[in-house]
Each structure stands twice: as C-alpha cells, then as structure tokens.
C-alpha cells in the first residue's frame, strides 16, 4: 500500500477501453451479448452515497433483464492449457542446500498456519503471544483474512492437508453477508486477490464464486461524481454504502488505493463475463477501473509526478505529496503489471509507467553521502530524504519493468533496481536484529537507519524480500539468495515465538519486544516470496503470472495461445 500503518498491536461492451486487451474486449462483448444488461450491485446501493454527491440513478431505473440465454462460463481447462509452465514447477535438479532452505521456509509457513488455526481460525489475524485472534476494522465484517491470504501459499508449498483445512473454512464458514465498514483496497488485494489466485491455481469453483460475489459488493464505492472510488474506500458489504475515512485528507481518494484495483477487476470481468468491473458499463454511473485510468491519464501531473491524494468529486489533486512508498506505491506497480498481464497489449499502462518512472528518476532518485541510492519523498517540491519499508518493493518492480526496455534504458533501470535493493538490504544489515525499520532516512548524518523512535518497528513486512525474489529471478546473482536467507534467520531469531510469528517494536534492540501480531501478509507475501527465492524459476513462472500487490498470482492473458 499505501497506508503507512502503525504497529498493529498498538495497531463494455459498448465502450471498450482502448487500454483493455483485445482478446478480453472480444470476450467481454460476447459475454455481454449472452448475459444481457450488466449485473447490478446491491439493490438501492447507488442512492446511498453519503454527502449527496452522487449523480447516480435509482437502482430500479431499468428492470433486471430476464435470463433467457445460457450463462457465461469461463473455460478453465482452456486457461490451464494456455500456461507455459506447470504452476508448481517441474522440480528439476537442484543443490541440497537450496532444497533444505526451501523446506525450512515451508516449515515456517506450516508453523504460522497451524498456530493461526489452533488459536484464531476465523479471526482476521493471530495474536501469537496471547494466543487469540484479532479482528480489527480494516475488512468491515469480513473474517478469515489470514485464511484467504494463506490459501495460495499453502497450495504452492504443497501443504495439502493445511490447504484442505483452509478450503473447508471458505466453504463452510466464510460469510459474505456481513455489515461493517471495509477498505476497498484491502478487501480487493487480500480477499479478491487471494480468492482469484486460488481459483486460477486449483480450478475449484468455490473460490471463483466467492470472489465474484465479493467483487459485486465493492462496486458502490465507485459511485462518485468522477467514478474515482470514494475517498478511502469504505463500504458496507450489506447496504452498499460508501464514504470516506475521516482522516484521509479532506475526503480525498488515495492513489495507491484506487490505483490498485485494475489487475483483480479485469479478472473479475474475465471470470464473470460481466464487463462492469473492467470497464464503464451502459450507465455512466457504473464506472470502474477503466474510468480510473482515464481520469488519471488526463489530469495534469506536477513535473510528471502523481500526487497521493485526489478528490473523487472534482478529479483534481488535493495536495502535492508524492511517494513511491506508502500512499503511492502499488499504483506504479499496477501500471507495469497491467501491461504484462495484458500480454503487453495495454500500451497506455506501459506509457504511464514509463513516464512516471522517468519523472521519479529525475526528481526523486538521490544518492546519499555514503553512496547509497534511495527514492526520496516529495512535498510540493521539497524533498524529504526518507524511504519507507513499503518503498522497498520498487527494486523488484523496476527490475521487472527493465526487462522490457532496450539499450541504455534497460541497463540504467537494472542498475537502479539493484542499487535500491542494496540500499534496502543495508537498512536491514545496519540494525541489530538484521531486520529493517518501517522507515529509514538519509539526513542529519543518518544513512539507511531510522532516526525516529516511531519508525523503528518491523511488522513482518514483505517488500524487501519481494525485491530479492525478483532480482534473483532476473539476474541469478547468488547474493539475493544469501540476503533472503539472512532474513529467514533473523525472523527465526527475533520474530518466532511460542505460538507463531510476531512483529517487533524496535529493530535496533537485541532483545526487541513483540507486538503480538502475525500479519496475514506474512503468510501471503513474506513467506511466499522467500519460498520462491529458493525455488526453480518455473514455479509460478514470471512468464505466466503477475503477482498482485499482496503476492497473489494472477495469470497473464496469453493472446497467442492456441489452447
Ligand atoms: C501488504 O498488504 C501489501 O503488500 C500492500 O501493497 C502493502 N502493505 C502490505 C505489506 O507491507
């Protein structure tokens, strides 16, 4: 994301987007012909936007069409034949040390899952010190965030029994008829992403149907004058209302939130045959991710940069804070991954990514006195020489994007990716625990270290190992595996407790205190990326998959497939 978090214990068919891949657009047209008018969201939902800003029509304006034609059916077998690699890899020869390390990470996953299952099954996260569950308020009334986030990791690691336990919970206990305020962004990346990925990996219908049902419940958040989903993406799964987080910059929408829907929403349309998720449907008020792209590509960008806050009412920037870390991060990630997922057809996304990266290189990339490359934040033209842990995903993203550039640019971007990843590694090695702080600075004599007490914590975040995984796959330089193993050892030493893994409050203390929280992204991302770092490249091959921002793999749309 996007949202810098405090320590948790304390804390179309008629108007196809030119950006949508051609094959998908054709499918959507066919699907729309078969399905009749687009499915509607929760009854009455479009009238219920707080503040009376909606230009929406009553949901009853046009009666639902009677289903007289065959329902849309996604051809799963055909999709599987289009993959170039077996999803869990071919298991060719490997050295025993790599295998042993991979097995160790698998054991960590089993330990994290078993403890969650024993003490917190059905809650959102495990509290490993007090051996109970945590619910929090991010997902509204939804439960089981750790189950959904863990599913594909359990599957990939061949933890069959544990995967069946998780699947059973989804089948029997995952209740979508809940009331509460939930973050559109978090529900999308964790729940929708996790369910979609598990469906694509296994072909089990339950995951698809839950993802689609939940996707429908998210649509009311788009009901704003600009179609940019409401403020900070709060919604009520039952009543279909949406409104803004109180603290979020005068009701504005956050770049990393509304910019991190595209991958999942295209797949929701692909699997349902319902164009509403991917593209503007027949009513102007039913705007979706295609519209977000249009608003963003048109709005003027200061020095080519994208500020983090946009008004969903006027479509203008609310303040000029730019960051590749929290509040901005996954917007950039979803541009390059949208292009990759479209089999390189979504040229608008690629151009937006290239232009954004150029502006970032020009205005935000800096070198410290000690020679470390970092990406600073920007506040109305003034640089803040700080990098958040969240920003460390950018090494992997820039390396991934560099593969598709040529000549000088490719080399420059690979160097930049390697330098940023190395700086993030430094933020780990310069701490006593060998784990990195939430934010580190390059001012007042500091070099990749946290200077504020409030920035010293580590909550099991994945971004640094995520970059190690991409850099390993794209360069095969052994140092990335070494660095990943250092993290495994540090996690074992400082974060493993009797009943799971916990974040720590101070990475500079040799006896850190624990925050009593096993974040769901530890199972979705940190352990998955570590595992993949010690796998052959054909396990979840980058030729077949893109990872959403919660590390859930979504398939690339192979347009040349003869499947
Ligand atoms: C995860 O939920 C996702 O990686 C998100 O994009 C950023 N924050 C956390 C992990 O740090």
From TrEMBL:
Cellular component, GO, one term: endoplasmic reticulum
Region Disordered, annotated ranges: 1-75
Any GO BP annotation: carbohydrate metabolic process
Disulphide bonds in the chain: 392-424
A Pfam short name: Glyco_hydro_47
Cofactor(s) for this UniProt protein: Ca(2+)
Active site feature: 186, 329, 438, 463
Topology class, membrane: Single-pass type II membrane protein
Biased composition (Basic and acidic residues): 66-75
Entry keywords, A to Z: Calcium, Disulfide bond, Glycosidase, Hydrolase, Membrane, Metal-binding, Signal-anchor, Transmembrane
Function: Involved in the maturation of Asn-linked oligosaccharides. Progressively trim alpha-1,2-linked mannose residues from Man(9)GlcNAc(2) to produce Man(5)GlcNAc(2).
Descriptive protein name: alpha-1,2-Mannosidase
Gene designation per UniProt: Man1c1
